[in-house]
Design brief:
Helix content: 25-40%
Order of helices and strands: EHEEEEEEEHEEHEHEEEEHH
Strand content: 25-35%
Number of strands: 15
Radius of gyration: 28 Å
Number of helices: 6
Mean pLDDT: 91
CATH topology of the largest domain: Threonyl-tRNA Synthetase, Chain A, domain 2
Structural class: alpha+beta
CATH superfamily of the largest domain: Threonyl-trna Synthetase, Chain A, domain 2
Number of domains: 3
Low-confidence stretches: none
Distance between the termini: 90 Å
CATH architecture of the largest domain: 2-Layer Sandwich
Length: 295
Protein backbone atom coordinates (compact mmCIF):
# COMPACT_ATOMS: atom_id res chain seq x y z
CA UNK A 1 0.00 0.00 0.00
CA UNK A 2 1.08 3.55 -0.72
CA UNK A 3 2.66 5.48 2.15
CA UNK A 4 0.61 8.68 2.46
CA UNK A 5 2.87 11.59 3.30
CA UNK A 6 0.00 14.10 3.48
CA UNK A 7 -1.23 12.32 6.61
CA UNK A 8 2.15 12.89 8.24
CA UNK A 9 2.51 16.52 7.15
CA UNK A 10 -0.18 18.20 5.11
CA UNK A 11 2.30 20.92 4.10
CA UNK A 12 4.58 18.53 2.23
CA UNK A 13 4.82 20.04 -1.26
CA UNK A 14 7.67 18.01 -2.78
CA UNK A 15 8.85 14.46 -2.15
CA UNK A 16 10.71 11.54 -3.69
CA UNK A 17 9.24 8.12 -4.33
CA UNK A 18 9.81 4.96 -6.32
CA UNK A 19 7.60 4.04 -9.28
CA UNK A 20 6.02 0.69 -8.44
CA UNK A 21 3.89 0.45 -11.56
CA UNK A 22 2.91 2.44 -14.63
CA UNK A 23 0.14 1.23 -16.93
CA UNK A 24 -1.56 2.88 -19.86
CA UNK A 25 -5.21 3.70 -19.24
CA UNK A 26 -7.36 1.99 -21.93
CA UNK A 27 -9.32 4.43 -24.08
CA UNK A 28 -7.57 7.45 -22.60
CA UNK A 29 -4.43 9.41 -23.38
CA UNK A 30 -2.66 8.87 -20.10
CA UNK A 31 -1.16 6.51 -17.56
CA UNK A 32 -1.98 5.18 -14.10
CA UNK A 33 1.05 5.42 -11.82
CA UNK A 34 1.52 3.93 -8.36
CA UNK A 35 4.41 5.07 -6.14
CA UNK A 36 5.68 3.57 -2.91
CA UNK A 37 5.05 6.93 -1.17
CA UNK A 38 3.24 10.11 -2.16
CA UNK A 39 2.11 13.54 -0.95
CA UNK A 40 -0.71 13.59 -3.51
CA UNK A 41 -4.13 13.43 -1.85
CA UNK A 42 -6.57 11.14 -3.73
CA UNK A 43 -10.16 12.19 -4.32
CA UNK A 44 -12.24 11.69 -1.17
CA UNK A 45 -14.43 13.35 1.43
CA UNK A 46 -16.02 15.58 -1.21
CA UNK A 47 -12.61 16.94 -2.25
CA UNK A 48 -10.95 16.48 -5.63
CA UNK A 49 -7.64 14.66 -5.97
CA UNK A 50 -4.40 16.63 -6.17
CA UNK A 51 -2.75 17.69 -9.40
CA UNK A 52 0.91 18.51 -10.02
CA UNK A 53 3.93 16.73 -11.50
CA UNK A 54 5.88 13.49 -10.97
CA UNK A 55 9.28 13.20 -12.61
CA UNK A 56 8.43 16.27 -14.67
CA UNK A 57 5.28 14.59 -16.03
CA UNK A 58 1.98 16.31 -15.33
CA UNK A 59 -0.46 14.63 -12.93
CA UNK A 60 -4.00 15.62 -13.88
CA UNK A 61 -5.89 13.66 -11.20
CA UNK A 62 -5.35 11.41 -8.17
CA UNK A 63 -7.71 8.68 -6.95
CA UNK A 64 -7.72 5.72 -4.59
CA UNK A 65 -8.39 2.03 -5.22
CA UNK A 66 -7.92 -0.89 -2.84
CA UNK A 67 -5.68 1.11 -0.53
CA UNK A 68 -3.45 2.35 -3.33
CA UNK A 69 -3.07 5.97 -4.46
CA UNK A 70 -3.39 6.18 -8.26
CA UNK A 71 -1.75 9.11 -10.06
CA UNK A 72 -3.16 9.78 -13.53
CA UNK A 73 -0.31 11.19 -15.59
CA UNK A 74 -0.08 12.60 -19.10
CA UNK A 75 3.02 10.53 -19.89
CA UNK A 76 4.73 7.29 -18.81
CA UNK A 77 7.22 6.80 -15.98
CA UNK A 78 9.77 4.01 -15.74
CA UNK A 79 9.01 1.34 -13.15
CA UNK A 80 11.71 1.17 -10.48
CA UNK A 81 12.87 4.76 -11.01
CA UNK A 82 13.13 7.15 -8.08
CA UNK A 83 11.27 10.29 -9.04
CA UNK A 84 10.49 13.67 -7.50
CA UNK A 85 6.88 14.66 -7.08
CA UNK A 86 5.47 18.14 -6.59
CA UNK A 87 1.84 18.94 -5.89
CA UNK A 88 0.20 22.08 -7.22
CA UNK A 89 0.29 23.90 -3.89
CA UNK A 90 -1.90 26.84 -4.92
CA UNK A 91 -4.74 24.47 -5.82
CA UNK A 92 -4.21 22.22 -2.79
CA UNK A 93 -4.01 25.07 -0.26
CA UNK A 94 -7.20 26.65 -1.62
CA UNK A 95 -8.99 23.32 -1.21
CA UNK A 96 -7.65 23.02 2.34
CA UNK A 97 -9.06 26.48 3.11
CA UNK A 98 -12.48 25.64 1.66
CA UNK A 99 -12.71 22.25 3.35
CA UNK A 100 -11.78 23.55 6.80
CA UNK A 101 -14.26 26.41 6.38
CA UNK A 102 -16.94 23.85 5.49
CA UNK A 103 -16.24 21.98 8.72
CA UNK A 104 -16.70 25.14 10.77
CA UNK A 105 -19.97 26.13 9.06
CA UNK A 106 -21.36 22.61 9.18
CA UNK A 107 -20.36 22.26 12.83
CA UNK A 108 -22.14 25.49 13.72
CA UNK A 109 -25.29 24.48 11.82
CA UNK A 110 -25.26 21.08 13.51
CA UNK A 111 -24.73 22.60 16.94
CA UNK A 112 -27.52 25.15 16.52
CA UNK A 113 -30.16 23.15 14.66
CA UNK A 114 -29.03 19.53 14.84
CA UNK A 115 -29.03 19.32 11.03
CA UNK A 116 -26.64 17.08 9.12
CA UNK A 117 -24.59 18.07 6.11
CA UNK A 118 -26.00 15.45 3.73
CA UNK A 119 -24.25 16.68 0.61
CA UNK A 120 -20.89 18.36 0.14
CA UNK A 121 -19.07 19.31 -3.06
CA UNK A 122 -15.80 21.18 -3.19
CA UNK A 123 -15.44 22.40 -6.77
CA UNK A 124 -12.69 24.49 -8.32
CA UNK A 125 -14.67 27.72 -7.86
CA UNK A 126 -17.24 27.23 -5.11
CA UNK A 127 -18.13 24.94 -2.24
CA UNK A 128 -21.72 23.74 -1.72
CA UNK A 129 -23.27 22.17 1.38
CA UNK A 130 -26.71 20.58 1.64
CA UNK A 131 -28.35 20.66 5.08
CA UNK A 132 -31.41 18.53 5.83
CA UNK A 133 -33.48 21.29 7.39
CA UNK A 134 -34.57 24.89 6.77
CA UNK A 135 -32.35 27.86 7.61
CA UNK A 136 -33.33 31.50 7.08
CA UNK A 137 -30.96 34.02 5.53
CA UNK A 138 -30.87 35.91 8.82
CA UNK A 139 -29.87 32.73 10.68
CA UNK A 140 -27.19 31.95 8.11
CA UNK A 141 -25.79 35.49 8.44
CA UNK A 142 -25.41 34.90 12.18
CA UNK A 143 -23.71 31.55 11.55
CA UNK A 144 -21.39 33.18 9.01
CA UNK A 145 -20.36 35.77 11.61
CA UNK A 146 -19.67 33.02 14.16
CA UNK A 147 -17.65 31.08 11.60
CA UNK A 148 -15.47 34.12 10.93
CA UNK A 149 -14.91 34.55 14.66
CA UNK A 150 -13.36 31.08 14.56
CA UNK A 151 -11.06 32.36 11.80
CA UNK A 152 -10.06 35.45 13.82
CA UNK A 153 -9.30 33.30 16.87
CA UNK A 154 -6.70 31.39 14.81
CA UNK A 155 -7.50 28.09 16.49
CA UNK A 156 -5.41 24.95 15.92
CA UNK A 157 -7.01 22.32 13.66
CA UNK A 158 -6.31 18.96 15.27
CA UNK A 159 -6.10 15.64 13.42
CA UNK A 160 -6.90 12.72 15.75
CA UNK A 161 -6.70 8.94 15.36
CA UNK A 162 -8.58 7.81 18.49
CA UNK A 163 -8.54 4.15 19.53
CA UNK A 164 -11.85 2.30 19.23
CA UNK A 165 -12.64 2.52 22.96
CA UNK A 166 -12.13 6.29 22.98
CA UNK A 167 -14.00 6.71 19.71
CA UNK A 168 -17.09 5.00 21.13
CA UNK A 169 -17.33 7.70 23.81
CA UNK A 170 -16.57 10.59 21.47
CA UNK A 171 -19.24 12.82 19.94
CA UNK A 172 -18.47 13.61 16.30
CA UNK A 173 -20.17 14.14 12.97
CA UNK A 174 -19.86 11.46 10.33
CA UNK A 175 -21.64 11.17 6.97
CA UNK A 176 -20.93 7.48 6.38
CA UNK A 177 -20.02 4.29 8.21
CA UNK A 178 -16.25 3.93 8.30
CA UNK A 179 -14.32 0.66 8.42
CA UNK A 180 -10.97 0.59 10.20
CA UNK A 181 -9.19 3.54 11.78
CA UNK A 182 -11.33 6.69 11.95
CA UNK A 183 -9.61 10.01 11.32
CA UNK A 184 -11.14 12.92 13.24
CA UNK A 185 -10.75 16.60 12.31
CA UNK A 186 -11.33 18.74 15.41
CA UNK A 187 -11.72 22.52 15.51
CA UNK A 188 -12.07 23.26 19.26
CA UNK A 189 -15.42 24.81 20.10
CA UNK A 190 -16.75 24.51 16.56
CA UNK A 191 -16.64 21.04 15.06
CA UNK A 192 -15.47 17.47 15.44
CA UNK A 193 -15.97 15.36 12.33
CA UNK A 194 -14.68 12.17 10.71
CA UNK A 195 -12.87 13.16 7.51
CA UNK A 196 -10.07 11.80 5.33
CA UNK A 197 -9.25 15.01 3.46
CA UNK A 198 -6.61 17.72 3.91
CA UNK A 199 -7.13 20.80 6.09
CA UNK A 200 -5.18 23.88 7.17
CA UNK A 201 -3.21 23.71 10.40
CA UNK A 202 -4.99 26.67 12.02
CA UNK A 203 -8.24 28.50 11.33
CA UNK A 204 -6.48 31.82 10.72
CA UNK A 205 -5.16 30.41 7.44
CA UNK A 206 -8.71 30.33 6.08
CA UNK A 207 -8.65 34.12 5.82
CA UNK A 208 -12.39 34.66 5.50
CA UNK A 209 -15.58 32.64 5.16
CA UNK A 210 -18.32 34.07 2.95
CA UNK A 211 -21.74 32.61 2.11
CA UNK A 212 -22.61 33.84 -1.38
CA UNK A 213 -25.89 31.99 -2.09
CA UNK A 214 -28.70 29.97 -0.52
CA UNK A 215 -31.58 28.01 -2.02
CA UNK A 216 -34.24 25.59 -0.83
CA UNK A 217 -33.21 22.05 -1.71
CA UNK A 218 -34.93 18.71 -1.03
CA UNK A 219 -36.71 19.93 2.10
CA UNK A 220 -33.58 21.62 3.41
CA UNK A 221 -31.20 24.24 2.13
CA UNK A 222 -28.19 24.32 -0.17
CA UNK A 223 -25.53 26.82 0.89
CA UNK A 224 -22.83 28.06 -1.46
CA UNK A 225 -19.66 29.33 0.19
CA UNK A 226 -16.21 30.65 -0.69
CA UNK A 227 -13.26 31.27 1.60
CA UNK A 228 -9.60 32.22 1.55
CA UNK A 229 -8.30 33.16 -1.89
CA UNK A 230 -11.68 32.47 -3.44
CA UNK A 231 -13.38 34.93 -1.09
CA UNK A 232 -10.88 37.60 -2.15
CA UNK A 233 -11.52 36.89 -5.84
CA UNK A 234 -15.27 37.06 -5.19
CA UNK A 235 -14.88 40.44 -3.44
CA UNK A 236 -12.76 41.78 -6.29
CA UNK A 237 -15.29 40.70 -8.90
CA UNK A 238 -18.19 42.22 -6.99
CA UNK A 239 -16.25 45.46 -6.59
CA UNK A 240 -15.56 45.63 -10.34
CA UNK A 241 -19.24 44.96 -11.05
CA UNK A 242 -20.29 47.67 -8.59
CA UNK A 243 -17.98 50.23 -10.22
CA UNK A 244 -19.26 49.34 -13.68
CA UNK A 245 -22.90 49.61 -12.59
CA UNK A 246 -22.11 52.86 -10.78
CA UNK A 247 -20.69 54.33 -13.99
CA UNK A 248 -23.64 53.09 -16.06
CA UNK A 249 -26.17 54.66 -13.68
CA UNK A 250 -24.09 57.79 -12.96
CA UNK A 251 -24.51 57.14 -9.24
CA UNK A 252 -22.13 56.74 -6.33
CA UNK A 253 -21.63 53.18 -5.17
CA UNK A 254 -23.37 53.78 -1.82
CA UNK A 255 -26.34 55.24 -3.74
CA UNK A 256 -26.77 52.28 -6.11
CA UNK A 257 -29.76 50.64 -4.37
CA UNK A 258 -31.72 53.89 -4.55
CA UNK A 259 -30.62 54.47 -8.16
CA UNK A 260 -31.77 50.98 -9.13
CA UNK A 261 -35.12 51.52 -7.38
CA UNK A 262 -35.65 54.75 -9.31
CA UNK A 263 -34.75 53.00 -12.56
CA UNK A 264 -37.21 50.18 -11.80
CA UNK A 265 -39.96 52.70 -10.99
CA UNK A 266 -39.26 54.63 -14.19
CA UNK A 267 -39.30 51.39 -16.15
CA UNK A 268 -42.64 50.43 -14.59
CA UNK A 269 -44.07 53.87 -15.44
CA UNK A 270 -42.93 53.53 -19.04
CA UNK A 271 -44.54 50.08 -19.25
CA UNK A 272 -47.83 51.59 -18.07
CA UNK A 273 -47.47 54.42 -20.58
CA UNK A 274 -46.81 51.94 -23.39
CA UNK A 275 -49.89 49.91 -22.42
CA UNK A 276 -52.01 53.06 -22.44
CA UNK A 277 -50.58 54.13 -25.82
CA UNK A 278 -51.24 50.69 -27.29
CA UNK A 279 -54.77 50.81 -25.94
CA UNK A 280 -55.31 54.29 -27.42
CA UNK A 281 -53.82 53.16 -30.76
CA UNK A 282 -56.21 50.23 -30.93
CA UNK A 283 -59.14 52.55 -30.21
CA UNK A 284 -58.05 54.87 -33.03
CA UNK A 285 -57.73 51.96 -35.44
CA UNK A 286 -61.23 50.84 -34.57
CA UNK A 287 -62.56 54.37 -35.19
CA UNK A 288 -61.01 54.36 -38.69
CA UNK A 289 -62.90 51.26 -39.68
CA UNK A 290 -66.18 52.11 -41.54
CA UNK A 291 -69.17 51.57 -39.29
CA UNK A 292 -70.80 49.10 -41.68
CA UNK A 293 -67.59 46.94 -41.57
CA UNK A 294 -67.14 46.78 -37.83
CA UNK A 295 -69.48 43.86 -37.26
Amino acid sequence: MTERLYNQDVYTKTFTGTVRSCTEVPGQEGYEVILDRTAFFPEGGGQYGDIGTIGGVRVRDTKERDGEVLHYTEGPLQEGDTVEGEIDWKVRFSRMQQHTAEHILSGLVHGRFGYQNVGFHLGDDICTMDFNGPITREEMEEIEQEANRAVYEDLPVHILYPPEEELQKMEYRSKIEIDGQVRIVWVPGYDRCACCATHVGSTGEIGQIKVIAMMNYKGGVRVTMVSGDRALLDHEKRERDMKEISAMLSAKEDELPEAVRRLMEENEDRKCQIIELQKRMNELKVQQIPEDSRY
